[in-house]
Here is the input.
Amino acid sequence: MAKKEDVASSEPQDKILKTNSLRAAVLGANDGIVSVAGIVVGVAGATSSNVAIFTAGIAGLVAGALSMAAGEYVSVSSQRDTERALLEKEKFELENDPEGELQELIGIYKSKGLSKETATLVATELTASDAYAAHIDAELGIDPNDLTNPLQASVASAVSFLIGALIPLLTIILVPVNLRLVATFVSVLIALIITGLASAHFGGAKKVPATIRVVLGGILAMAITYGIGHFIGRSIS
Here is the structure.
C-alpha cells in the first residue's frame, strides 16, 4: 500500500481519472469491434444467410454491451466504496489524532519540495481553515462532491461497446455477399488502427507497437473464428 505522502494532489488525480475514462471508452469500443467481428465472420464462414449472421451479430452485440455495463458497474461501485471508506478513515483520524495528522500534512508538503518552515506554515493555515478538506486534497486527491459514478461508467462502457460493435455488423450485412468478408476485414482493420492509436495516446504508450498488437489480435481473432465457422459449416452441411 502506497504511503499517503506519495498520493498525488486532486488536480493531477482528476486528469488521471479523465484520461482513464477516455482510455476505457476506447478499449470498450475495441472490445465491441473484435468481439462482434469474430462472431459475424465466424457465422459467415459457416453460412451465407444474412438472417443467421445478423441474428448472431445482434445477440453478440447485446450480450457484450450488457456484460460490459455490468462489469463496469461492479468495478466502479467497488472503487466508489473504497473512496468513501478512505474519506471516513481520514475523518476518523482527524478526530482522534489531529496532531499526528498535522505532522503528516507537513510531511506531504515537505516531500513536494517546501522547506520545513514553509511546509509547517502551509499545513497549519490549511488545517485551521478546513482540516478535512486539506487532508483529503493533499493525501487522497478525492473530491467528496465528485465521486466516481457507477451508473455513468456503466452506460459509457455499454455505449462505447455498441459503437464499436456496429462497425463489423453493419459492414457484413450491407455489403454484397461476394465482398462482405473482405470489406469487414478492411473496416475492422481501419477501426482497430484508430482505437489502437487512441489507446496508446491516452495510455502514454508508444503508438506503433501498441497499434500493431491491437490490429494483430483483432485480425487473428477473426481469422480463427472464420476458420472454425467454415469448418463447422462444411462438417454439418
Summary: The CA atoms of residues 65 and 158 lie 5 Å apart. The chain is about 85% helix and 0% strand. The chain has one domain: 4-229. The two ends are 58 Å apart (CA to CA).
